[in-house]
Every structure is written in structure tokens, then in C-alpha cells.
């Protein structure tokens, strides 16, 4: 699914003429979810009830919050929720059993294995146990392989789930009419959930994608060449204003909790220094940018899995 409807025109204009246009991921996600509600109702009218399953191991606060948020999103669009929560002491056999249960459960259209898993459990081996047709995150090796084999130029559809954050980033760019084809994109970070699959997806759309990481000799120089910058390193304030080409689109994916020593409270910071707003043409905020779109794309993967199977 691609966001093609035009946003209200005032969203394309910065409040400050010397400040970047804010890419509103929250508003875009609301639009995606409104569309999904209609599609879910249509499926239910045919007797098909989409369901998202989650496997959570342990009580990591971040993971608990993330999974709870996914199920709230499901309720918002009418998707059913199926949970398997395991203790910190769960063995590899316990986790394997939970995955096989989700594979066999007809109520589960698609599911996720919430990462990280306990030390000593190989996440790749667990992902490989999933039915690839039930992969809500788009990270099963079979589905990533489909993305590798996809024809450049965006010709034809990829009939498998796409990784949620890369898919959300592409839709954010498309919604704001930010050109991708023929443009140079610099991605900071080579993680499995963002950097590597995003490079594949952008290449399919005929962009030139440069993937930088901790061994890149001069990350700043690579960023200065880019029409589009995607920062997914998890280092607060990493991308400085003098790194960014004037008018470039900057997508901030990183989220770090930073302590305010005066108040004793933590606040969320992205990978992009706030001063970049004075240079960039477009900038996604943290929070309120990529995060809501990632969650919306997870729901889209569930609904599309139900549509393919019905």
C-alpha cells in the first residue's frame, strides 16, 4: 500500500520560512489507520478476522510498552490480538513452542517475535521458525530475500510483507512529494530492521543508496552528498547542521532517552541535532515522525496478509 492522497497543503509549508517543513508521521499514520479500518470491516463482512500475534519473552520495560502499544493500535482498527508472554527464564524450547503455536493458530494472521530475546537465544534461528506468510515485521529471511530479488524501478509488486520502518520511511517521503528516483540517499546505520532493508527498498525505487556505519571513514562527507538523509544510528544529536546539504530531506529514526540534569527527567532525543531544521528542506521529528508510521505499517502488513489469504 502506498500513501498517495495529498495532505492538506499547509503541511507542506514551514511555519518559519527559515525552518524545515515538518514531516508529520502522526498525521500520516492516522490516515493509514483510517484506510485500514475500512479494509478490516470489509474483511470481517466476508468472515475474515485479521489477528496480530505477539511473542514477548521477559519483562523488559521498553518491550512491554512496545507490545502494549501494538495491541492498542490493533484495537483502534479492529484487528484481534493474540498474546503469548513468557518469563525471563523461558528456554529455547519454550520459545520454539510459542512460535509453532502461532504458526498453527488460525486466529493469527501474522505475528511478531519481540526483540531482544534473552542472552543465548539466537534471534535469527527463531525468525527462521516462523511461517514466512505470517511474518508481520517483514524480517523473515525468505521475505527479505524477496526484497533482494525485486526488480529495480518498482515494476511489479512485492507480494510479501515489507520491513515496517523502511516501508514507513518511503511512504513519508512519497506523501510529501519528496523525489526518490535518481536521488542520492545516505543511510546512517546498517541494522537489520532499518539500514540494510531500507537500502534494498530505495534501490528498487531507483535511488542511489549509500549505507554508512561505524567503520565509514567520513560519515559527515557522505551525508553532505545526500538529497535524503536517514539517521538510524541511535546516537543522540549525531547529525549536525553543517553535515546537511541545504534543502535536503532528513528522516530521524534514532531514539535515545537523555537525562535532563536540571529536572531529573528523561526526554527522547533523535539522532539529528535540532539546528538541522535551519538547513534542511524537510525534517521528521522525534517523537512524532517515523515511530507512528512504523506501527501503522505493522498493521498494514497484518491486514494485507489477511487479504492475501482470503
Describe the protein in words:
- The chain is of the alpha/beta class.
- Among the domains are: 46-131, Leucine Dehydrogenase, chain A, domain 1 (Rossmann fold, 3-Layer(aba) Sandwich), CATH 3.40.50.10860; 163-292, Rossmann fold (3-Layer(aba) Sandwich), CATH 3.40.50.720.
- It is built from 9 helices and 11 strands.
- It has helices at 25-45, 61-77, 92-104, 123-129, 141-149, 164-175, 195-204, 219-224, 290-309; strands at residues 21-22, 51-57, 80-86, 110-113, 184-188, 208-212, 228-231, 249-252, 256-260, 265-269, 282-283.
- Strands 1-11-8-7-5-6 form a 6-stranded parallel β-sheet. Strands 3-2-4 form a 3-stranded parallel β-sheet, sandwiched between helices.
- Strand 5, helix 7 and strand 6 (208-212) form a beta-alpha-beta unit.
- Residues 1-15 have low confidence and may be disordered.
Concise description?
The chain is α/β, with parallel strands linked by helices. It contains 9 helices and 11 strands.
Features:
globular, 310 residues, disordered N terminus, 16% strand, 6-stranded parallel beta sheet, 37% helix, Rossmann fold, 3-stranded parallel beta sheet
What is the element layout, followed by pairings?
Blueprint lengths: L20 E2 L2 H21 L5 E7 L3 H17 L2 E7 L5 H13 L5 E4 L9 H7 L11 H9 L14 H12 L8 E5 L6 H10 L3 E5 L6 H6 L3 E4 L17 E4 L3 E5 L4 E5 L12 E2 L6 H20 L1
Parallel strand pairs: 1-11, 2-3, 2-4, 5-6, 5-7, 7-8, 8-11
Antiparallel strand pairs: 9-10
Helix pairs in contact: 1-9, 2-9, 6-7, 6-9
